[in-house]
Every structure is written in structure tokens, then in C-alpha cells.
Amino acid sequence: MRQHKGVMCRLRSGAPRGMLRRNNSKGSPGMADTQRPIQHAPDRPWIFRTYAGHSTAQKSNELYRGNLAKGQTGLSIAFDLPTQTAYDADHILAKGEVGKVGVPVKHMGDMAKLFDQLPLEEMNTSMTINAPAAWMLAMYVALADERGDDRAKLRGTTQNDIVKEYLSRGTYVFPPEPSMRLIADMVSWCYTEVPKWNPMNVCSYHLQEAGATPEQELAYALATAIAVLDKVKAGGQVPESDFETVFGRISFFVNAGVRFVTELCKMRAFVDLWEEIGRERYGVSDPKALLFRYGVQVNSLGLTEPQPENNVYRILIEALAVTLSKRARCRALQLPAWNEAMGLPRPWDQQWSLRLQQILAYETDLLEFEDIFDGSHVIEGKTEELKKMARATLAEIDALGGATNAITHMKESLVGAHIDRIKAIENGSLSVVGVNKYTSTEESPLGVGDGSIQTVDPMEEAMQVRDLEAWRAKRDNAECDAAIAALKAAAESGSNIMEPSITCAKAGVTTGEWGTAMREVFGEFRAPTGVAMVISSGGDEEIEAVKVEVDRVSDALGRRLTYVLGKPGLDGHSNGAEQIAARGREVGMDVVYEGIRFTPAEIAAQAKEAKAHVIGLSILSGSHLDLVRETIAEMRKQGLENVPLVVGGIIPPEDAQALRQMGVARIYTPKDFKITGIMGDVVKVVEKAWLATA
To answer: Active-site residue among 51, 64, 191, 294?
Structure first.
């Protein structure tokens, strides 16, 4: 309860006299159509989070303790890409990626440093981790055991949604079937061993980041939850009498975009559809178990590099969409910082976003009222429309055999929806202030000069590798070998993976060793790119004009202009690369794009085999300097030093200058939103490189 001083304080103990109304609308769940107060003592606020982690476990721990001291009420851990994909810091694919987009957690020693001086029994810890979610939870539980904490008191969430990784985020490792088995093992184990833990956070956030429409976000997330619950049911580890409890522990992580009314209605639709699925498909009747429990990070796709100060308003509007409607209010909220379109936010930037939440919760009267949208025919109508469209999309997925069998279909649909969104921005039918409308601006004083964004010391990676070597040297390797053997045996036999994973953590097994053991049993997977569809320009004048140029240059080259597009390293954010690949094909180029997670050597080999006229790299993890340098070296080894290289990503101006000095022909950043224009520019790069001296 808040403390109040002075005569300006409002009455908090209940509704003022006479503040009753007669309600004839649906109202909040569990409330009858009778007179009831419209104002009451404030509800408890949602959990305040910021998504954070970088460099090292020790530095991230300092950041967490600082954020908690500022009033943050839950942790949301960002792991680096090697950790997210179950590689150690010394793996070839980890080069340049260690500590860049999150904290490296290589072993139990890192986990202990990460939570130093933080009371595990009192924390609410969210882990944005998917393919190795079982491993991260195993280390967390192992740490609690070693510190003498009660497992039953641990509270938090592992994201653990592998379907959306195949569709949008890209940090998958194993094929769908064993991946779903790992999730089912966690769900089945958690409800008895760590009953306050959410073993899965069905994540529609990245679906919207990949271009999903509201009905796609609703349907694909719900289809994923259904696939997991069906897998748990079929696994036989949970008695039928306990299934309602398991259903009640499934949580969601949702996106909220800037189209306020639609996003608010989407959340109300989620609430209704989840209850509908629980009652009708699984026979769940407990009202508490049927609650749609969700956390949010609001939309990052819509954050702009031009006029980034405008992002503050976007973030606020998006936060309102998931807090104003009481019956569809989030349980936890994390907000991006205003400058995340340019790089990692500084502690002050994160504090600014945290203060937004605190002002909303503690200074306004939002939490004192019943749902302010109940009875609105506009809100009800839009909510019903979204539910109808989502049910139709769910039926399509069911007809394909469920979410895991519909991955290719869903991926292609997402890429298509994103193509539509990008074209709408390009042609101006979708307005983005500061990007395609009202572009003139005063210079911003908010983020200028050195230190305007958080950076990671490039020497940290070498330090992490040395730490890894020291850890391996001091542990009992025989104990590790035995633990890994038991882990693989459990994976092969179908036994639950959690306790053997906890044993591995306590023995000193590393993240990469756990990942290697699982890869040896389950194999690896490469998800569909979604860009294999036949694309038509629809008569777009700009596209048709670039097509003419592609044809002209191709004729002069003697064969079709060939563009090899690669994503080196572990960056799984493939949305931009997919749009470039799709548009390149639309303007008539021969585009070779095999997906994510290739080494620079593999990309150079692809270019040599395809006889590329131009190579493009898409890098959004902040590792562009290392990966471009290595790609250029590999191109020289293949005799491709004369092939022009273009690079796209979130690249600060000073890094852009360094890339040009390396020989990069063009650099594209988020401000270059007109993809057709980029394609026309690439044609000029090819013509200059191959035909200017011919």
C-alpha cells in the first residue's frame, strides 16, 4: 500500500459514498450483473521488470542490484547468444558474440556470480531462454540447493517457447520433436518440484516483431500452447487429476504495438480464448487455473533510429494497452529504452523506462477502478472480430496437424505479413513519424557523443574464454563425464531430463558440454527461411524500375545478377535478412539465402559456389566489426576479394567508418527503410565492381 501525505490524498479505503453503478455489460470475470462499486482500494501493481544483462555475470549482478534498488520488482535476464544456443565461449560460432546482447552463463560459477547477494526465495526471476531452458533452470535450482534455499519457494519463468524460435527469433538448436519433449519434461517436473515456477512462457512477442498481424499473434501463440499441453498429456508423466494444475502454470509473453485500440482488444481476446480452450479442449473448470497470465515487453519493431526521442511516447502508449483494461491487465511488464534502436541502453535509459511504469502505477488512479472498457460496444466489437479471425487461423493450423507440423506454413505467412507492413511504410500508407512523415527535426541533446549507448569491452570475450579454461581445469572431470553419460542416457531412454541436468550443473558441466550432449542424442535443426514463395511486385512502379536495371546489368554480366545473403555468427534476428532476400527476388535477382547461423567461412564458400556478384551480411547483435573482418579474410582465401561486400544492421556511425576502411562497399541501418531503394543501390554497386572497367 502506498503512503500518502497531505489533504490532496484521495480516499483509498474503498469507494466514496454513492459511487455505485448498475452494470449491464459482461464485466470482469466472476462479477455478477449487479450494483457494485466502481472505485476501490488500489490493486497490487504488476511486476516491474527491465530486460538486462551484458558483459559478465559480475557486471550484470551489479546492474540487477542497482535496478532493484531503484524500485524494479522482478528480474528479466538477457543471456548472450552463445548461452542461448548452448555453446561455450570458445566455440567457433561464439566468436565476437560473447557478452554482446546479454550475460554469458557458462557454468554454475557464473550462475552463482549472477545471483550474488540476491535472495532466490524472494526473487521473481524471468529467463529469456529457449532451447537450453532446461539447462538454465537446472543451474538455477542447483544454485538454490547449494545455498540451502527451498526449491518450492523459487518463483519465476523460463520462456521455453521453441516454436516461435523456429518462426521468428532463431535461437533454436534441436528439431521440433525432441525440443517439444524437453519442454514437456520441464512442465511435468516443475509443477511438483518448483510449483511456483512457470516452466513455459508462450511467447507471441517475437511473432509481432516478425510482422504478425493481431490474429496471427493470437492464433500462433495459442496453437503453441496447445501443442505443448497435448505433448504433456501424451507423455504420461502428469496424472489426469493434476492436469488442471499444469494448465494453470502455463504463462504467456506478449507484445503490445502502437495501435492502441487493436492491441487492447487483442489482450481481451487472449483472455477469452484461453479460457475457452481450457474449458472446451481440456475440461479445466477452476477459475484461477483458467486465468490468462501474461507478461509483456512492448513493441521494439516500431522503435525508430530517426528521431529516437519519439520512442518514449510510443512506449507509453503501448504500455497503456496492457494496463488500462483490468480484466486483461498484464502480470509483469518490461519496457524497452528509448534508444534501443541504436544499441544497448545505458542504466539511465533503463531507469527512464522503469520510472514510466512507476508513475503509471503509483501516481495515477488506474489501479483503483474496475475495467473502464466494460460495456463499450467498440471494444467488444473489435475483440469479437479478433477472436473470430484467430479461431479461423487456429482451425487452419489444426488442419495441418498442429503447430509443430505447421511451422513452414506459419513462417511463410509471417514473412508475407511483414512484406505487407514494410511496403506500407515505403509507400506511406502506414505512417511512422520521423521516418516517412514529419522527418525534419532539431538535433536531440539526449544521446550524443561517447557513452550515448552501452558498449561491451572487446577484451571481455578473451577473459570469458580464460575463465572457461580455468573452470575446466579445477573441476573433477571424471565426475563431469559420469554426469554427462547419465544425462545422455536419460535423453535416449525418454526419462525426464531435469534431475540429470541438475546433477550435471553441480558437477561443473558447462553450457556447451550440455548442449553437445543433447546435440549428439537429438541432432540439430535448420528452420525454414519463409522466403521460398513466389513473389509478385503487383505493378509497383519503383520495383518495376529496379527490375529493369537488374535485367540490364544481368544482360551485361552475361548471367543473372547473383546476390549471396548471409547471417554470420549466432544472431537469429532474421526479419531484415528475409525482407532483403524477398525483395531481391522480387526485383529479379538470383538471391541465395540459406538462413541463420553460418560461419564467415561457410558464407564465403556459398558465395564461391554461387559465383556471387555481391555478398550481403545482416548482423544485429553488435558483433559486426569482428564478423565482417573475419568474413573479408575468408573471402580472400576463396579468391573473392573483388566481390563487393554490403552490410546491414544496427551500426553506430563510428563503426560504419571502420567498416568502410575494411573495404565494405555499402552500409545500411534501420533508417534505410526503403528496401526497393536498397536493391537499386546494390545494382549500382555490382555495376561499378564488375562492369565499370569492362
So the answer is: 51
Please count the structural domains in the chain: 2
Catalytic-residue membership of 205:
yes
Among candidate residues 95, 100, 206, 423, the one labeled active-site is 206
Find out whether 92 and 142 touch, Cβ atoms under 8 Å.
no
Mean pLDDT for 186-195 is 97
CA atoms within 13 A on the CB side of 416: 12
Q: Is 571 tagged catalytic?
A: yes
Q: Please identify, among 360, 392, 427, the residue that sits at the C-terminal boundary of a domain.
A: 427
Q: What is the pLDDT of residue 452?
A: 65
Q: Which domain holds residue 659?
A: 541-692
CA distances from 228 to 9, 45, 177, 232, 419 (A): 48, 30, 11, 6, 30
The alpha carbon of residue 206 and the mean position of all alpha carbons in its chain are separated, in whole angstroms, by 5
- Identify whether 437 is a catalytic site residue: no
Of the residues 91, 231, 567, 624, only one is catalytic, namely 567
Q: Residue 98, Cα to own-chain centre: how many angstroms?
A: 18
140 an active-site residue? no
User: Which of these three, 408, 427, 446, is where a domain ends?
Assistant: 427
Q: Are residues 179 and 311 in the same domain?
A: yes
pLDDT the model gives residue 600: 96
Active-site residue, from 110, 571, 590, 655: 571
Lowest mean pLDDT among 154-163, 368-377, 464-473, 648-657: 648-657
Fill in the DSSP letter of residue 11.
P
Catalytic position from the list 64, 205, 294, 668: 205
pLDDT tens sequence across 65-108: 999 999 999 999 999 999 999 999 999 999 989 998 899 999 99
Residue 63 within a domain: yes
> What is the rounded average pLDDT of the residues 418-433?
93
CA proximity to 163, closest of 192, 136, 187, 130? 130
How many CA atoms does the CB half-sphere of 145 hold within 13 Å?
14
- How many Å apart are CA 224 and CA 84, to the nearest integer? 20
Asked, for residue 490, whether it belongs to a domain, the answer is no
Q: Is residue 311's pLDDT more than 60?
A: yes
Look up 51 and say whether it is catalytic: yes
Catalytic position from the list 100, 382, 418, 573: 573
